[in-house]
Design a protein that fits this description.
This protein is 23% helix and 25% strand. With 520 residues, it is an alpha/beta fold. The strands form 4 sheets. It has an 18-stranded mixed β-sheet. Strands 4-6-8 form a 3-stranded parallel β-sheet, with helices on one face. It starts with 11 loop residues before the first helix and ends in a 5-residue tail after the last strand.
């Protein structure tokens, strides 16, 4: 019985969707089999060609080149997007230029070009053809690892350009080619420069529609001037720098809502405070810096990500409308910082302990104080990332002075990274707080085994005023079918051990805990 080609009978829009999800090399093969497929091939809106892995055979490389060549030459209609990620050691510049020409002729809208850097010499980088800068249909232009030469008489005509991304661009001489390209495209809304070399100054002006600006690891930059009245997002990263970089905003910045600063060397307290004043409508702040003191007072701030690089950084936070707080550092925020924190609007807290100095800062006391501070927050999600059981060991001395556990924590999420002391962590956490819902994150050891052999009338803690969690826990319920299935999977393992087992939770496991009051 003759087989029926049911795929070719599908509606054209369905076939187009299928082709868009198939690797382009397979699409090129499919068009050889059916005229219907070949016709559809001419209408594909976008093409993406990625690097081939090292050691690719000559035949596979030839097929790859032919696939690109035929895809662009057979395409008869407007091309929405072309992405080329190519190794210049395997594909010649003339061939690449012919493909770019074909894309421009087909009125490409999104052009993304990335070239593998063979070495750092300028004459070994791909020299971008000038005709790209007069492709009037381009709306998104991303250039990665190529040579940019724009002379004074170079015609730049990109009236539709809305997004410009310049990554690892090298200029001959100075930053003038990049500067001219930016200033010649007044309708840009999104601008990124990252890892660009030979660029000492960046002046962003005349871009009335610019909403997003990212300057990432341009290590030779000494000066950034920004005149962008519609700016809503600014990101600045620099981990290594020979000289300080001076950042100046010369226009009103009342629309800026998200600010990301990653600079361990050059951010000063004076500069940081001036930014908080300049951006009255700021809602998201993400800061990584080496300041001795970080003071944040802002009425509109909703999300705060803090990453101080000094162990002795003093924090003072006054943000009455803060909804989300994330902290990554050498210790939890000091009690002084927690005391100043207004928690009335907080909904989510994420704390990641990094290289805690246990002798100088007790994470137990600070954690307990923090639990008490946020106890009345409604719908609170607390995420704790713990790397060592030493960070959460409650000694006998601490047990004797520790106040009763906090009852009002709604949801507690625990993530324990590469730590064999998960039982101690669970013990300590439940000494400090009695959450209504406890979630164990994927990749964490199965700490819930502590619930397995709970005694009905525990005889521990006879000499302590404050009893451990075993005396308070009345009932444990598994929340959801996925949690139950994951627990069954772990419990069925033959190597199960109360001391330690080489096993991790593969999906989130949630428990609903019912607590009671212990009566002597």
């Amino acid at each position: 019985m003759e087989e029926i080609d049911r795929i070719s009978q599908l509606p054209g829009e369905v076939l187009m969707r299928i082709l868009s999800l198939v690797p382009i090399k397979e699409v090129a093969r499919a068009k050889l089999v059916s005229k219907a497929w070949q016709k559809l091939f001419e209408f594909l809106p976008s093409f993406t060609f990625e690097f081939l892995p090292p050691g690719t055979s000559t035949d596979d490389m030839s097929s790859f080149i032919n696939a690109i060549d035929s895809a662009l030459k057979l395409h008869k209609h407007t091309l929405d997007k072309l992405k080329l990620s190519l190794d210049l050691d395997l594909i010649g510049s003339l061939m690449i230029e012919s493909w770019i020409d074909a894309a421009v002729e087909r009125k490409v809208g999104h052009l993304d070009l990335c070239f593998l850097r063979l070495n750092k010499r300028l004459d070994h980088l791909y020299h971008l053809p000038v005709k790209v800068f007069s492709a009037r249909t381009i709306t998104d232009l991303c250039l990665d690892n190529c040579r940019l030469e724009i002379c004074g008489d170079t015609n730049i005509d990109l009236p539709g350009l809305r997004k410009l991304c310049l990554r690892r661009i090298r200029c001959k001489g100075d930053e003038q080619p990049i500067q001219k390209l930016i200033s010649s495209c007044p309708l840009i809304q999104d601008l990124e420069t990252s890892f660009c070399s030979r660029m000492e100054r960046l002046h962003v002006s005349g871009l009335a529609n610019l909403q997003r600006l990212s300057v990432i690891n341009c290590y030779e930059l000494e000066s950034i001037k920004i005149d962008a009245p519609s700016l809503q997002y600014f990101q600045y990263h620099r981990f290594i720098g020979v000289l300080p970089c001076d950042i100046v905003f010369t226009s009103s910045s009342e629309f800026l809502k998200e600010l990301i600063l990653f600079d361990d060397q050059c951010i000063t307290e004076e500069f940081f405070q001036s930014l908080l004043v300049r951006f009255p409508n700021l809602e998201i702040l993400d800061i990584f810096c080496g300041l001795q003191r970080i003071e944040i007072s802002h009425n509109r701030l909703k999300r705060l990500n803090l990453r101080p690089t000094r162990a002795e950084t003093v924090l003072n936070i006054d943000t009455p409308n803060l909804q989300s707080l994330s902290y990554i550092g050498y210790r939890m925020p000091l009690i002084s910082a927690i005391s100043s924190l207004n928690t009335s609007s907080l909904r989510e807290v994420d704390i990641n302990f990094v290289n805690l100095n246990i002798r100088k800062h007790s994470p137990i006391l600070q954690s307990k104080f923090f639990f008490e501070k946020i106890r009345h927050c409604q719908d609170m999600k607390l995420h704790l990332h713990i790397k060592s059981k030493k960070q959460f060991m409650i000694s006998g001395k601490l047990r004797s002075i520790l106040s009763p556990p906090v009852y009002d924590i709604k949801q507690l999420y625990l993530t324990v990274d590469n730590c064999r002391g998960y039982q101690h962590i669970m013990d300590s956490m439940l000494w400090m707080c009695h959450p209504q819902t406890l979630s164990i994150s994927p990749g964490t050891a199965p700490m819930f085994l502590k619930f397995r052999n709970k005694e009905e009338h525990p005889e521990c803690c006879t000499s302590c005023t404050t009893k451990c969690w075993r005396h308070y826990l009345e009932e444990v319920q598994i929340d959801g079918g996925e949690s139950r299935a994951e627990i069954d999977r772990i419990m069925a393992k033959p190597e199960l051990s109360d001391k330690f087992m080489e096993c991790e939770v593969e999906c989130e496991v949630r428990f609903i805990l019912k607590w009671g009051s212990y009566v002597v």
